[in-house]
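> example.struct
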């Protein structure tokens, strides 16, 4: 899990908007195994370790359903610490007959895909050891091969699923963008990430400290896709965590030099990428 702590810059928390608060809370607790950290009305912070939040759920009064073919969340990815845990969670989802959307072997990782009751995309995955990843000319090799689900289920059969295990983190986030103009400037020159893989002009994967990706970006919702209404289902913001206050302030300075705006609210700093995806800037 060394890619999700200093000296890495990584994604740590997200805030999601949902239409039915109790339904969503039941899903995240009973299906995935999150715990409630704290709750104020229809805003709840969910945790794994009982100390730091990974997901905040909120229901605006005038909430709209998820809007198709817009920028915003493609999926967020929950990184489990070992294959047994992922197998046990998959067993649990199968037993509960919860619909899955796919499963893949990405060479660097093994992943299962689903969505929450509002259609917010979710990836559940484990990493293969980084010593097994293949790099060439500064890019990591990733693909979409069939997952060996049978062996994964068999490995998880020895564990009764109760909750997400210690060591579970938000591994990465994958966002729809309208196009790639200024995207590398924002995320790489500004925030300080490095490109690790490009899939033509359709997808871009970036990371820090040699991870396979902390952030994925794609134009699969359509080039020129517009931002969704602020009150629609989806992501409010995702958090990028810097290893130090100095690193955060230098990133803010770089973004301002590139003419990206910074908003300060309640002692927190926010910015938005060129496709209006909102990002909270924090320190580990």
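> example.seq
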């Amino acid at each position: 899990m060394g890619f999700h702590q200093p000296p890495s810059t990584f994604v740590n928390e997200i805030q999601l908007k949902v239409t039915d608060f109790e339904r969503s809370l039941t899903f995240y607790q009973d299906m995935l195994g999150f715990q409630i950290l704290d709750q104020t009305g229809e805003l709840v912070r969910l945790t794994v370790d009982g100390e730091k939040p990974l997901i905040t759920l909120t229901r605006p009064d005038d909430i709209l359903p998820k809007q198709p073919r817009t920028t915003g969340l493609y999926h967020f990815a929950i990184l489990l610490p070992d294959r047994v845990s992922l197998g046990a969670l998959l067993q649990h989802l199968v037993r509960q007959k919860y619909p899955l959307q796919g499963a893949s072997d990405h060479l660097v990782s093994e992943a299962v895909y689903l969505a929450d009751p509002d259609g917010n995309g979710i990836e559940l995955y484990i990493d293969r050891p980084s010593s097994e990843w293949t790099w060439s000319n500064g890019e990591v090799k990733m693909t979409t091969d069939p997952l060996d689900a049978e062996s994964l289920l068999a490995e998880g059969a020895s564990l009764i699923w109760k909750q997400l295990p210690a060591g579970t983190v938000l591994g990465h986030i994958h966002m729809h963008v309208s196009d790639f103009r200024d995207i590398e400037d924002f995320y790489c020159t500004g925030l300080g990430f490095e490109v690790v893989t490009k899939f033509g002009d359709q997808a871009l994967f970036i990371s820090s400290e040699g991870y396979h990706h902390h952030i994925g970006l794609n134009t699969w919702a359509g080039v020129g896709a517009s931002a969704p209404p602020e009150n629609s289902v989806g992501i409010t913001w995702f958090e990028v965590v810097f290893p130090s206050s100095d690193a955060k302030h230098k990133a803010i300075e770089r973004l301002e030099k590139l003419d990206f705006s910074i908003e300060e609210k309640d002692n927190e700093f926010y910015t938005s990428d060129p496709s209006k995806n909102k990002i909270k800037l924090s320190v580990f």
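> remarks
Residues 2-283 form a domain with the 2,3-Dihydroxybiphenyl 1,2-Dioxygenase; domain 1 fold (CATH 3.10.180.10).
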